[in-house]
Specification:
single chain, 171 residues, mainly alpha, Methane Monooxygenase Hydroxylase, Chain G, domain 1
Length: 171
């Protein structure tokens, strides 16, 4: 068999393995759904807090900084995975001995890749997303002779909604 046929045969086996694994997982989920009893009650549906009675709502609002930190970590963590194929090509002594340009190509590729990562890190840093405690923006100060309490009272009066009048029609 030629080299292309061997490669496609190997990938065919991998595809068959992936399909078999997916069918096994889906079949197990369907089989367990059919066999298990379904008897929900309030105690089973409540949030578990180490044996203590739950207090308040389980859904709390998290600070957006946690999401930003998690996304940055995920981005760099996933990008590190792309370095493993480079390491295998760069460590293949026979490939580099046959074609020395592969070594330079792999080196240039990893430098470009690391450069893109550094540009992303510089962007996030310059944007201020890595700062955990961000400075508070204060309102503008004015040198007006009118006190701030008068402005606040005026704004309260201006933002009040007038009462709704019901109009009735008599026949």
């Amino acid at each position: 068999m030629n080299e292309l046929g061997e490669v496609s045969g190997d990938f065919g086996l991998v595809l068959l393995f992936i399909i078999g694994g997916a069918l096994f997982v889906i079949g197990g989920a369907i089989f367990s759904r059919i066999l298990r009893p379904n008897r929900p009650n309030p105690e089973k549906l409540s949030t578990y807090e180490c044996g203590e009675d739950p207090v308040g709502n389980a859904r709390i609002q998290l600070n957006n900084r946690f999401y930003v930190a998690a996304l940055i970590f995920l981005l760099f963590d996933v990008e590190i995975i792309f370095l493993f194929p480079w390491a295998t090509v760069f460590a293949d002594v026979e490939l580099i001995r046959e074609a020395p340009s592969w070594g330079y190509f792999a080196l240039a590729e990893v430098i470009l890749f690391a450069g893109i990562l550094l540009v992303g890190l510089a962007y996030v840093w310059a944007k201020g997303d890595l700062d955990w405690v961000k400075p508070q923006v204060s309102g503008p100060k004015s040198n007006s002779k009118v006190p701030d309490s008068e402005y606040e009272a005026f704004n309260r009066r201006a933002s009040q909604v007038p009462p709704l009048e019901l109009v009735t029609t008599e026949n």
